[in-house]
Each structure stands twice: as structure tokens, then as C-alpha cells.
Design brief:
The complex is a heterodimer of chains A (840) and B (185).
Chain A: H1 2-5, H2 10-76, E1 80-85, E2 90-93, H3 95-101, H4 107-110, H5 129-142, E3 146-152, E4 158-168, E5 171-181, H6 183-205, E6 208-214, E7 219-222, H7 224-230, H8 234-237, H9 242-246, H10 252-263, E8 268-275, E9 281-292, E10 298-307, H11 309-358, H12 364-394, E11 403-405, H13 407-421, E12 427-433, E13 441-443, H14 445-462, E14 466-477, E15 481-490, H15 497-500, H16 512-518, H17 524-534, E16 539-544, E17 548-559, H18 574-577, E18 584-587, H19 591-604, E19 608-611, H20 614-623, E20 628-632, H21 640-648, E21 660-664, H22 669-678, E22 682-685, H23 690-702, H24 728-735, H25 739-766, H26 769-785, H27 789-804, H28 807-839
Parallel strand pairs in A: 12-14, 18-19, 18-20, 20-21, 21-22
Antiparallel strand pairs in A: 1-2, 1-5, 3-4, 4-5, 6-7, 6-10, 8-9, 9-10, 11-13, 13-17, 14-15, 15-17, 16-17
Chain B: E1 8-10, H1 11-36, E2 50-52, H2 53-67, H3 71-89, H4 100-105, H5 107-118, E3 126-132, E4 136-142, H6 148-161, E5 167-173, E6 178-184
Antiparallel strand pairs in B: 1-2, 3-4, 4-6, 5-6
Classes of the chains: A alpha+beta (840), B alpha+beta (185).
């Protein structure tokens, strides 16, 4: 452009001028347009300002209105309000707050002040003022919403305080304090809390452990005593599972059952074991009840636990003690039964011989001795008899031998016998019977005799003079049965009140003095009580010391259906009535018993034959006919059972139905039953008094039809099996299930045989055949008693051969015997062991 | 023209363009361009007004004919020039800024909202940041006016302002309505 400037042409200049003119035009146009635009913007701005001014005015009005509304609202709120700015200067405070806090000041005066610097501000609070200040400072610092502080004021009010920080966007503007009067609510809560505390205290003091669990057994709350009981601390329990922590596995099912109950809303009480922290198991009684929420849904349960470990262990000890006592009692019973059994046989012999001795010629000195012996033997017999009675009753083996009776006649007979027996002339015996009882009744006359005779005997013992009276009257008529009340009264020394309490107990006598003075076993009244109970009765005693004693008892008897003529064994002239018996067969191996029986029969002038065993008896029966057979049970060669069965199976023999009286050494029902099962008709337990035999003989004489005994089928249960090498059939028939007897027999055998065998060996070696015969004869029956019947037979052969002088046979048989003897002996020994094992 | 979407641009873009044309090519070229161009405003521009985008396109097209330079080159050169003007006219935006990439990355989020406060009717392109690190910035440019080259010029001006060197790669998509920029050092 610089180049061109020198040679600028007019046309160029004109062009340039035109260009500049266009440019100026454009600038002017642009300026005007800019001016116009600015004018427009200015107007727009003015109008905007006007609009804003109006808007501001209306906003101010609105704000004013709203502020007034809010202020009046806050003023009238039933809540204390304090609004502060970020510097804790009061912006607003209402009258309610001043009223609540007890500030007698116009709220407006507080505006702009620091509220905490108000005079007496600190005095407002009942709580520690330093703590209040710390708490407020913390709220100021945190600047977060906070509520639910319950503040107690000095004026007694309780306030709920809310702290509400105020922010605008992120800028902190101040805070609002809100106070609400919750005094009443607080008091209610306090009362509820105190009540809860009280009951909790009561339960804790009762040593009951409380625990609350949810539906899954997680522990929600545990109380002190529960913690003590289980050894855990609170914090160890909360949230733990109750089942896992405490319950042994075996209670799972039980707890499931309890859960189901609880879900149904049922409370319950049960006992389980729980494991303590130290592993020890304790017994607890739990009372569980469901917990409900506000909608009545079961949400868990509360359990009250009571430690019953001590009680449980006491229970166990008591049970063990009781079991031991029962075992001891059982052993005592067994002992008594066994002892009496053992003693019975020798006494039988003694009593028998005494009776025989009375029939011989005696010097006065001898008679006196004999009386003394008889007195002692009678006491012994009474004792044994009582003990056996008790044993039988207690073992449930007492058999009631019931028949139709006339109670009046039975009682009359009893009082007559008593009067006769009594040696005192100062005693009067009377009997009184209700007219209504003169009907046939079904009863066991022996029992009735025993009851009354025992009581009368007792009365006689303690009554020196006066009256002994028995009576019976109808208490109640039950239709088929009658209830009878009986009395035995005396005018004796009486019984003291304290002694009355145990008169019916075994072996309990009034006192040691009584025992020494009056003697007796102390069993009599106990037996009476048990016999009365057999007839569903009760017995009691009334007494006044020095005045007398009354025993009162009841019994229930069946009425006789057909009411046929009363047929009882009365006291009759027995000497006459047995004269018609032509001949009696005595089957008895024991020489002493033989003598006793023969003595009696001679006295009664009844003809007799003697058989030493069943086999002999059979051969006699085939030759002649008998009215009665007295059959011992245990005999060599053939026992009483077998002999009886053979007799009953005889063909074309007059003796087939002969009455057979079993003579047994045992009074047990089983033994008697066995005898009856074998076909015997009567039963006498040795030792027996002459009267007892006589009364049976009288019955046989009168009653040709024989049996008065009702034979019941009682299968004998015998679990013990004898060794097959022994004669088991014989042993079973011999002992039945009476293993005790078997034990005794086997015991005797093992103890005595060795010396006998040694003697036999010596005599054989010495060649003394008469002595050998004697021993063989003596030991012959012993083998059969333990089932070695072959040995018995062998001894028989030896005995017979010795008799013939057949020394070869004797040697041959005895050699064989000695060869097998040790083996047989050890067999018997092992059988004895087995029997004893079975018995224990 | 009437079929096209009618975009307006701020007056400063036109006044600065005119000043640059006059300074670089002389008043005769500028007069020729205005005389030949079909401009409803008649080329009388003021910074306080707004003018249709089409006028810018018309002016640049005429200038291209007049000078023989391509439209793209012209737009890019003007963009670079204009950024320099912006840094002076709107210096408040550049206080506390120290990095070209950081500045570019916040045009969409920080600068444009401010521009809208000043000029509520301003029509601005949109930037979408795809990647941003110290060494590299990737972003998409969206504008119905297809002013990708102009934008590229502005980016160059930005780098020059911060006195930084970087390679600018562009990829034009959707007929120029979308341009991917990759600026890396």
C-alpha cells in the first residue's frame, strides 16, 4: 500500500472515498443498532427493577405475616421453646419455657441475651449442675439433633428436652431448644419401674432365677439370681442361646414340647437338669410363661428357675434308704421263715415224745420235770407257729379254708375253751352275739379261732380278776355279705396311750418289764391284725390304764347261699366218735414219729399197721383194707406222693378211695397243694397236737364222702432244672419248687457223707461185713434224697448180699461204688452250688 | 437459508472477525467481502448484538474466494485468534487456571454455565469428556453448526495461551456435527 500511495489515481481515490463512506455508513448503522439495543436493554432493566420492587414489597408483607403467625404460635405452644443464634444469643423464647423453668421474667427481656447467663440459671436443675453444663456444651459442640433427655428440675417438674440445630444449606444458624413437661408420665413410669423393681426384688430374694428368651431361645434378659445359679455373668448370657448353653441333649424332646405349649400361650411347670458354667449339672424346677407383644403375639417366654438339686439328691437318698430297708425286711422275713422251718422238725419230735411220756408211769419228780419240759416246748412251739403264720400271711400264702359256719357256735366254743384253759378262778368269761348274726356264714373257723384266742390269751395274761367278754354284732348288711363288728374286752391293767400306738407292730411289746413279767413273742396282735385284714376288716384298741382294754375289729363275711344245716367241728366227745375206725395204716419212716403216732392210736384204741415207706404201704394195702392212711411225704424207697398216686390207681381194691391224711413238715400252701393234687384228702402240718389229728379222724369217721378240701389246680412253677445225671423225676417229686429244702438236703449230704464213706471203706478193708451192712443200711436212703437213686439201689444190693453172706457181691458192688463216688460227690456239690445260686 | 436452522452468534465473533480481516488482508479485501456477501445485517456488526450463524459462513466463504485460502484454514486461524481475544475480554475465567487440558476439560461444566448466566440466549456447542489425564484429553464436540475447525482453532489458541505444546487429532463424524478430539502431549 505504501508503494501505491505515490501514484494514487483519482479513480482510486474515489474508490477509496466510496469504500470509506461505506465503512462509515456501516459504523453508523452498527452504532445506531448498538444504541438501539442498549436503549432496549435499559428499558428492560428499568422494568425488571420495578417488578423486583413490587415483588419485594409483597414478600415483606408475607414474611411479616408469617413471622407474626409463627411468633403467636410459639408463644401459645404448650411446649417451652428457646431459639438461639449461632452465638447462643436468644432470638426467641416463649412464656411456657419461663413458666416451666420457674423464671419470673418477661420472655422479651431475654432476647439478645445468653440464656445460660440468666441469673439463677444453674439453680433450675435438680441434677448436678456441672453435669448439666457439660451435657449442654456437648450438644452445642456436636450440633446434632438430640432428644429424650429427661431433666429433673428443682421445682419438681421433669422435662423432656430436645436440641434441634438449624442449618441453612451448610451454614449453621443456631439452635432450637424444646422443653416438654413429662412430669406426670415420668411419675407413672417411675411408679411402674418401682413396682417392677419391687417384684423383681421379691423374686430374686425368693432365690428364683428369672430369664427372658425370644422364640429361638436367645437370651434377652437375665436376672441376678439366674446368673448366680448358673455361674455366668450377665454379659456372658445376653444374646446366647439358652438351649445350647444349658441343656443336656436328653431334654431336647421335652423342650420341644414346652416350646409348642408356649407358642399356644400355655404356661407350664417342669423339672429338668441344666449345665452350669463350671460343668456341674443342677436340677431346676422351671415355671415358664409366654411373653406377648402389644399385638398379643407370642414373642418369647419368661422362665422362673428354682434350684431343686438338694431336694433331688435328698429324694434319691430317701429312695435308696427305703429300698435298703425293704430288702432288709425281705431278708428278715426269709430268715424267719427258714429258721422256723428248720426248728420245726426237732420240736415236732420233742412235743410228740412229751405227749407219749405223759402216758407212761412217772414219778412225781419226773412229772414235774416233764411239766417244765412241756412248758418250754409249748412256748417254743407257739413262737415258731406265730413266726410261720406271719411269714405265711406276709408271703400271701395264707390259705383260707372256708366253709359254712354258725358264728354263734364258733364263738361259744371259743369262750368255753378259754374258760376251761384258764387257771384263774377270779375271771369270768362271757359271750354275746347279735340275734341277726344267727345265719349261716362262709368263713374259715380256724382263722376266727386264732383271732379270738390270741386276743383272749392276751387279755388273760394282763387280767388278774374281773371279766373277759367277747361279742359280735351286725354292723351292716350288704346283701350278699355282712359286715360284723367284734369286741374282746377285759378289766385288766390296760395299755398306756403311747404304747397303744404300736401294739399291732411285730415284736413290739408294751415294755421290757412287760416282756419279762408276761413273756410272749410280741407277734400275737400283729397276726390278729393281719388275719382281720384278710377279711377286709380293721382293728383298733381302746384302753384306760388300770381299767381295762377293748379290742374292736370288723370283718366281712359272705352269706351262705343254700343255707343248709350248719356243719361245724364242735367240741365233741372224741373218745367215743373214733371207736368205729377199724384200722389205720401209718406210713412213716421216722422212728420217733412212728412212736408218737402209735402212742396216740394206742391211747385212742384204734388198730393200726406200720409201713416204713410207700412201697411197704402198697404191699400192706394189697393185703388188708383200711379206714384211713396217715401218710408221711418224705420217705425212702417210695415217697408219700408216689404211694398215694399208686393207691388211687389201684384196680379192684377196696382201698382205692381210702381217706389219706398227709403229714407234712411244712405248712406252706404249695406243699399242701401238692399233697392234695397227688390225691390225698387231708393235711396235717407236723408238729401237730393230738387234738388236731383226732378232729380229722372224727371227720373221716362221720363223713364217709371224705374230702372237705376244695382242690384248686395250681400248676407248680419250677424254673430250676436238676442235672440230667440225677434222678430228676424223683427230685422234682421230692422237692417240687421247694429249693430251700433241696439246698438243706444237698447240704447235709455233702457235709456228712464223706465220713460215712470213709468208715465204709475202712470196714470193708478190715473185712467186717456186719459193720459194712450196718453202714450201707444207714446211708442207703441218703443217696435218693439227692437224686442218686442208683446208689440207693446199690446200697440195697450190698445190704442184701451182706445179709446172705455173699462177700463177692458186696466187694464187687462197693468197688463199683467207690469208683464212681468221687464223680458223683462233685456232681452233688456243683448241684448244691447251683441251687444256692438260684436261691440268692 | 430459510430451510436451515437459524442459529445466532454473539456479535463479538463478527466484530473480531472483521477486525482480523482488515488487519491481515487490508480494508479493500474486507470491503470486497462485505460488498459481495449476501448479509442481511449489511455487515454493520456491534459486539452487543447477535447475528445469524449463516452470516459468518457467508463472510468466511467470500473471504476464501477473495484470498484463495480454504474455509477450514480460515476458520481454524480465526478460532486461534479469537481465543486470544477471549483471554483478554473475559480474563476472570482464566484466573487460577494453569493447564490447557484442565481448562478445556471444564469448558462444558464450568465455562458454559457462566456464559449462559451472562447471555441467556447464547447457543453453545456441547463437549463430552471421554478421557482426561495430565497428558491426554479426549472429547467429543457436538454442534449443529459444524464448526469443528473453528473449535480446533480455539483449542490451538488455548494451548498457545498456556504456552503448551500438544498434538491435536481430529475425527469428523456425522457430517461434521460430531468431532472427536484427541489432544495429547
Amino acid at each position: 500500500m505504501e508503494e501505491k500511495s505515490g501514484s494514487v489515481s483519482i479513480s482510486d481515490l474515489e474508490k477509496q472515498i466510496a469504500r470509506l463512506k461505506r465503512r462509515i455508513d456501516r459504523e453508523v448503522t452498527a452504532r445506531k443498532s448498538a444504541e438501539r439495543l442498549l436503549e432496549e436493554k435499559s428499558l428492560e432493566l428499568y422494568q425488571s427493577n420495578r417488578k423486583l420492587a413490587r415483588l419485594n414489597e409483597s414478600l415483606e408483607k408475607t414474611v411479616h405475616r408469617r413471622t407474626n403467625t409463627l411468633a403467636s404460635l410459639i408463644k401459645n405452644l404448650q411446649t417451652g421453646i428457646l431459639l438461639e443464634d449461632e452465638n447462643r444469643k436468644v432470638l426467641l423464647v416463649n412464656e411456657k419455657l419461663c413458666e416451666y423453668l420457674g423464671l419470673e421474667i418477661d420472655p422479651k427481656q431475654l432476647i439478645g441475651e445468653d440464656f445460660t447467663e440468666t441469673p439463677s440459671f444453674i439453680d433450675i436443675f435438680d441434677d448436678d449442675s456441672a453435669a448439666v453444663e457439660r451435657r449442654m456444651q456437648a450438644l452445642y459442640d456436636n450440633r446434632k439433633i438430640d432428644s429424650l433427655d429427661a431433666i429433673r428440675l428443682k421445682n419438681g417438674r421433669v422435662m423432656r428436652r430436645d436440641f434441634i440445630p438449624i442449618y441453612s444449606d451448610e451454614e449453621y444458624l443456631g439452635q432450637l431448644w424444646k422443653f416438654q413437661d413429662i412430669t406426670q408420665q415420668y411419675q407413672y413410669e417411675e411408679r411402674i419401674r418401682q413396682s417392677e423393681e419391687k417384684y423383681r426384688g421379691i423374686i430374686e430374694n425368693m432365690e428364683l432365677g428369672l430369664i427372658e428368651v425370644d422364640l429361638d431361645h436367645n437370651i434377652i434378659k437375665a436376672y441376678d439370681w439366674f446368673c448366680d445359679m448358673t455361674g455366668y455373668a450377665h454379659e456372658e448370657l445376653i444374646g446366647k442361646n439358652m438351649r445350647e448353653l444349658f441343656l443336656p441333649k436328653e431334654y431336647d424332646q421335652k423342650i420341644n414340647d414346652e416350646d409348642n405349649r408356649r407358642k399356644q400361650g400355655e404356661p407350664s411347670i417342669y423339672e429338668i437338669q441344666m449345665r452350669r458354667k463350671d460343668g456341674r449339672l443342677i436340677w431346676v424346677l422351671i415355671s415358664g410363661a409366654p411373653i406377648y407383644d402389644t399385638n398379643d403375639n407370642v414373642v418369647g417366654s419368661i422362665g422362673i428357675h428354682y434350684d431343686i438339686t438338694d431336694r433331688k439328691s435328698l429324694e434319691n437318698e430317701l429312695r435308696e434308704a427305703r429300698e435298703m430297708a425293704e430288702k432288709a425286711r425281705e431278708a428278715e422275713k426269709q430268715f424267719l421263715a427258714n429258721m422256723s422251718h428248720e426248728i420245726r422238725n426237732p420240736i415236732n419230735a420233742i412235743a410228740g415224745i412229751i405227749n407219749l411220756l405223759y402216758d407212761t408211769k412217772l414219778s412225781s419228780e419226773q412229772l414235774e420235770y416233764l411239766n417244765n419240759i412241756k412248758y418250754a416246748a409249748d412256748i417254743l412251739l407257739g413262737l415258731i407257729s406265730d413266726i410261720l403264720d406271719i411269714s405265711k400271711i406276709e408271703a400271701g400264702q395264707m390259705e383260707l379254708n372256708e366253709r359254712e359256719i354258725d358264728l354263734a357256735e364258733v364263738l361259744n366254743a371259743i369262750i368255753q375253751t378259754s374258760r376251761f384253759k384258764s387257771t384263774s378262778s377270779n375271771l369270768e368269761f362271757n359271750c354275746e352275739i347279735d340275734e341277726q348274726l344267727k345265719i349261716p356264714l362262709i368263713a374259715d373257723p380256724t382263722m376266727i379261732n386264732q383271732i379270738f384266742l390270741n386276743l383272749i390269751g392276751n387279755s388273760i395274761k394282763f387280767t388278774e380278776e374281773g371279766e373277759i367278754r367277747i361279742s359280735a354284732s351286725l354292723l351292716k348288711d350288704h346283701g350278699e355279705e355282712v359286715e360284723v363288728v367284734c369286741k374282746v374286752e377285759d378289766t385288766g391293767i390296760g395299755i398306756s396311750e403311747e404304747q397303744m400306738q404300736n401294739v399291732f407292730e411285730k415284736f413290739k411289746q408294751a415294755s421290757k418289764e412287760t416282756k419279762l413279767k408276761y413273756g410272749g413273742t410280741g407277734l400275737g396282735l400283729s397276726i390278729v391284725k393281719q388275719l382281720v385284714e384278710l377279711y377286709q376288716g380293721k382293728i383298733s384298741v381302746e384302753s384306760e390304764e388300770g381299767e381295762g382294754t377293748s379290742f374292736i375289729f370288723t370283718m366281712i363275711f359272705s352269706k351262705s347261699e343254700d343255707g343248709k344245716e350248719i356243719n361245724i367241728i364242735a367240741e365233741k366227745d372224741q373218745e367215743d366218735s373214733v371207736e368205729t375206725l377199724k384200722k389205720v395204716l401209718v406210713v412213716e419212716d421216722n422212728k420217733i414219729n412212728q412212736q408218737y403216732l402209735v402212742g396216740l392210736l394206742k391211747r385212742w384204741e384204734i388198730p393200726y399197721d406200720i409201713a416204713n415207706n410207700g412201697a411197704e404201704a402198697l404191699s400192706l394195702i394189697e393185703k388188708s383194707s383200711y379206714d384211713t392212711v396217715l401218710m408221711d411225704i418224705r420217705m425212702p424207697v417210695m415217697d408219700g406222693y408216689e404211694a398215694t398216686i399208686r393207691i388211687r390207681n389201684l384196680e379192684h381194691n377196696a382201698n382205692k378211695h381210702v381217706p389219706i391224711i398227709a403229714l407234712t413238715a411244712s405248712a406252706l400252701v404249695d406243699e399242701k397243694q401238692k399233697a392234695l393234687d397227688a390225691g390225698m384228702n387231708y393235711h396235717l402240718t407236723k408238729p401237730f397236737a393230738p387234738d388236731q389229728l383226732l378232729s380229722i379222724l372224727y371227720q373221716i369217721n362221720n363223713d364217709a364222702s371224705g374230702s372237705s378240701v376244695n382242690l384248686a389246680d395250681q400248676p407248680v412253677e419250677n424254673t430250676f432244672q436238676f442235672n440230667d445225671s440225677l434222678d430228676t423225676a424223683y427230685l422234682d417229686s421230692l422237692f417240687g419248687d421247694d429249693l430251700e429244702r433241696a439246698a438243706i438236703m444237698f447240704g447235709i449230704f455233702t457235709r456228712t457223707m464223706s465220713s460215712e464213706i470213709a468208715q465204709l471203706r475202712d470196714q470193708l478193708a478190715a473185712g467186717d461185713f456186719p459193720a459194712v451192712r450196718e453202714i450201707a443200711h444207714r446211708i442207703k436212703p441218703n443217696f435218693a434224697m439227692v437224686g442218686l437213686t442208683e446208689e440207693t439201689d446199690r446200697m440195697k444190693i450190698v445190704e442184701e448180699a451182706a445179709d446172705r453172706g455173699d462177700e463177692n457181691t458186696v466187694r464187687k458192688e462197693l468197688d463199683g461204688f467207690f469208683q464212681t463216688y468221687p464223680e458223683k460227690m462233685s456232681l452233688i456239690q456243683s448241684e448244691l452250688d447251683r441251687i444256692q445260686q438260684e436261691l440268692s | 437459508m430459510s430451510n436451515q436452522i437459524y442459529f445466532f452468534m454473539k456479535g463479538i465473533v463478527f466484530t473480531e472477525l472483521m477486525e482480523m480481516v482488515e488487519a491481515k488482508f487490508g480494508d479493500e479485501v474486507m470491503d470486497n467481502v462485505i460488498e459481495k456477501a449476501d448479509l442481511p445485517s449489511g455487515g454493520a456488526y456491534t459486539a452487543v448484538g447477535s447475528y445469524p450463524h449463516s452470516e459468518l459462513v457467508e463472510v468466511v466463504s467470500r473471504l476464501s474466494e477473495e484470498t484463495g485460502l480454504s474455509i477450514d484454514d480460515l476458520l481454524m486461524a480465526y478460532g486461534e485468534h479469537l481465543f486470544g481475544i477471549f483471554t483478554k475480554a473475559y480474563s476472570s475465567f482464566f484466573v487460577n487456571e494453569s493447564s490447557a487440558l484442565d481448562f478445556l476439560a471444564k469448558i462444558e461444566s464450568k465455562i458454559h454455565p457462566e456464559v449462559h448466566k451472562l447471555y441467556p440466549d447464547a447457543e453453545l456447542p456441547t463437549f463430552e469428556i471421554l478421557h482426561h489425564s495430565e497428558e491426554k484429553l479426549e472429547m467429543n464436540y457436538y454442534s449443529g453448526r459444524k464448526m469443528g475447525k473453528f473449535a480446533e482453532g480455539l483449542i490451538k489458541g488455548c494451548l498457545a495461551y498456556f504456552n503448551e505444546k500438544a498434538i491435536i487429532e481430529t475425527e469428523s463424524l456425522e457430517d461434521g456435527r460430531k468431532v472427536r478430539f484427541s489432544i495429547h502431549k
